[in-house]
Amino acid sequence: MTVALLTLSVIAVAGCASQALPERAAGMRIDASSVQSPAVTRRSAYEYHVLAGEMAIQRGNRTLAASEYVAALDYSRDPALAKRATRIALFAGDPALAYRAAGSWAASEPDSLDAQRTAARLALSNGDEKGLKVYAQSTVAAAASPDIGYRLLADVLSGESANSDLAVRTASHMAQRDSDSAPAQYALGVVALRYNRNDVAEQAAARAVALDPQWNDAVLLRAGVWIRNGESAKAQALVDDLPGNDATRAQYHMTLARLLIEADQDEAALDEFQHAIDLQPQNADARYGLAILSLSVGDLDRAETAFNALYDDNERADDAAYYLGTIHEQREEYGPAQHWYQRVENGSHAFESQVRGARMIYMQDDLAGARQRLSELRGVYPELADQLYAAEGQLLYEANEPQAALELYNQGLAELPDNAELLYGRSMAYERLDRIRAAEADLQTLLANEPDDARALNALGYLLTNHSRDFDQALAYIEQALESEPDNPAILDSLGWVHYRLGHLRKARRYLEHAYRVFPDGEVAAHLGEVLWKQGERDAARQVWQDALADDPDHAVLRATIKRLDK
To answer: What is the distance between the terminal CA atoms of the chain, rounded to a whole angstrom?
Structure first.
């Protein structure tokens, strides 16, 4: 019986089941196998657990739904049920329960590649070495060919850094088991390279090439190992010697470029993309790779040329227009940036481009025009109204129009009550208007809805640090935020600042120096400089402030701090 048919059958007994077992409404766990009534058969127990699972899903209780569906597997070998139980348990975030269900699914469908791969992945995440060996073999066996099977296995084994030793041991076991299989050696090399076991990867790649000298993927794997070992020139020479027509060889150079990017050798990767383009001038992927990487390394002129060519040839035109907009924005050429952003019509950058286009209007000193454009976009993207209100509020905040921002956020919250983005924005407007209690109330509402919201916790802690004497409570909020986002420089800045207000200068300096290294913002510089000043290191404080002023000469907090202290 499939799960779909079963659901129809159990609905008919829902009334009597819910009356006979009222404890289930309270979420109590009942082992149907221990019920002594002769009326409880394997079939009725199975139906009962599925019904309870469906009811839990409807109530949003994922954990209970997963346990009920997995319990139903004790009474049925239906592969559709096992598959559904696996997915529900994964959705509930219970890998152990999901693994139990996946084992049942894999046993009931030994030829299902999806079932065997899922069981293998969960065996790895649960650290079950014995089970992983079984499912690694069944994954390869269920694939259309050993080559496909071992590629899929390498992908499975490359996804769990926490269990990297187990992954490499399993790949090694498979490579020893199929010692004459080039795909098996290749899979071991890929997994070992993923976890930086370069010596193992080198041996496996060499073995794969020896078994199949004409297999170019094995040659490319060996090139990847050499790149990781710092032998890029040797790897490039190896790829140059590969046979094939221009299109094939272009693909080899693109593969080598990606390997070089992974090894943080961007300049060499640019050369490889260019080699691919020289061999196949109309290769859009190579041209796009060259453009993106040029932008990434800050070569704006080269990136602009490449993106213009893509746009003119109608190759990934929307992406090209978006990145041409970002290039002009980085150059502070706001008119051309607006022009390119407005040309993005489809794709993943469409909405962001329209919002950025509105911002470019503001950057050309037309706040009213930018607000009008964002208002129009709310009609085009009603489902994203909160983000558009937030974007408009940010412009008003930057323009030092906090009252107008407050009115806008009130308008947005009338349409979208308790929206997190708008509550957060309104709290910032309230603070700018010195309405501290109102700002605090909005942040408390956010935390009532989402107690672990790191941004709200940090904002509330920072608000109390600056506008109250309740530094201990402020510290508690900020430390809770840091637990969620330990490397967030804004939170580190807040933590350093509250320690300064508490008189803990050493701690304050440590956190603020960390924050400033990661994010050399003017406000962080103001805080760090003040701590240094308080410690008597006035020359060091002035140096921090001057460096920050060179990047942002009009930063209000920074200038106010310098004026207050360095008289």
So the answer is: 83
SS3 557: helix
Distances (CA, A) of 420 to 354, 382, 386, 462: 22, 17, 9, 18
Residue 110, helix vs strand vs coil:
coil
Contact between 271 and 259 under an 8 Å Cβ cutoff? The reply is: no
Q: In 198-265, which ranges are continuous DSSP H helix?
A: 198-211, 216-228, 232-240, 246-262
DSSP state of 159: S
Identify the helix (H) or strand (E) that includes residue 522.
Answer: helix 522-534
Q: Summarize pLDDT for 358-397 with one digit per residue, the tens.
A: 999 999 999 999 999 999 999 999 999 999 999 999 999 9
DSSP character string of 59-87: TT-HHHHHHHHHHHGGG---HHHHHHHHH
Nearest to 173 by CA among 126, 221, 140, 218: 140
* Dihedral sign of CA atoms 353, 357, 362, 365 in order: positive
Per-residue pLDDT tens over the stretch 91-140:
999 999 999 999 999 999 999 999 999 999 999 999 999 999 999 999 99
Which residues are CB-contacts of 195 (< 8 A; sequence separation ≥ 6)? Answer: 158, 161, 164, 167, 168
User: Quick one: which of 329, 321, 345, 254 has its CA closest to 293?
Assistant: 254
At position 462, the amino acid (one-letter code) is: Y
Q: Smallest Cα–Cα separation from 196: which of 263, 254, 129?
A: 263
